[in-house]
Amino acid sequence: ISVCNAENVVIDGLNLGNSPSWNLHLIYSKNVVTCGCHIFSKGIWNGDGWDPDSSEDCTLFDCVFDTGDDCIAIKSGKNPEGNVINKPCKNIDIFSCRVISGKSHGVAIGSEISGGIENVAFWDCDFSGSFFGLHIKTTEKRGGYIKNVTFSNSKISRLIMRQVGYNDD
């Protein structure tokens, strides 16, 4: 599902899964609430779960993830196009979510961050079932920034911050 240039959207109680890529992509949108969903894509390469991308004021809660890649991936544009559009992803609240799969990443920030990411809060989440609980990643040429990310009352398995060598076009 792609929610593009939308405002005031509620996605409630869906089972989403086995998409050939990202299951739920929110791009250039505002005030999107996602709750009570089960998102699964175990065994799907690049099978992200919930991806706010250059969006703002988005809330995710009471969701369960069993994905083949990033359960939650916060992004803000990719490469030259992302640099020109320069729209940050901001004011993202995530709480009471859980990860089942051990192959996935609970939360990824990036690798697409050309427009910047700010004001992201997680609380009361359990990402201990994921391979990386929090994975912050970018490439050398993308630019962008990450600021004001907070975790509280949450479990994560591992934290990794790195520059990646893929998608560096």
Q: What percent strand?
A: over 45%
What is the mean pLDDT? 91
State the helix count: 1
Low-pLDDT runs of 5+ residues are none
Morphology call: globular
Structural class: mainly beta
Strands of the widest sheet, in order across it, are: 2-5-8-11-14-17
The topology string of helices and strands comes to EEEEEEEEEEHEEEEEEEEE
Write down the Rg. 14 Å
- The helix content is under 10%
Distance between the termini: 25 Å
What is the tally of beta strands?
19
Report the sheet with the most strands, covering strand number, pairing sense and barrel closure: 6 strands, parallel
Can you characterise this structure?
This protein has a 6-stranded parallel sheet, with no helix packed on it. The chain has a 4-stranded parallel sheet with strand order 3-6-9-12, with no helix packed on it. It has a 4-stranded parallel sheet with strand order 10-13-16-19, with no helix packed on it. It is built from 1 helix and 19 strands. It is globular and about 35 Å long. The chain has 169 residues and is mostly beta strands. The model has no long low-confidence stretch (mean pLDDT 91). The protein starts with a strand and ends in a 6-residue tail after the last strand.
Short characterization:
By secondary structure, the protein is mainly beta.
Topology of helices and strands:
Blueprint: E1 2-4, E2 7-12, E3 15-17, E4 24-27, E5 30-35, E6 38-41, E7 50-53, E8 56-61, E9 64-67, E10 70-74, H1 79-85, E11 89-95, E12 98-99, E13 105-109, E14 117-123, E15 126-127, E16 132-138, E17 146-152, E18 155-156, E19 159-163
Parallel strand pairs: 1-4, 2-5, 3-6, 4-7, 5-8, 6-9, 8-11, 9-12, 10-13, 11-14, 13-16, 14-17, 15-18, 16-19
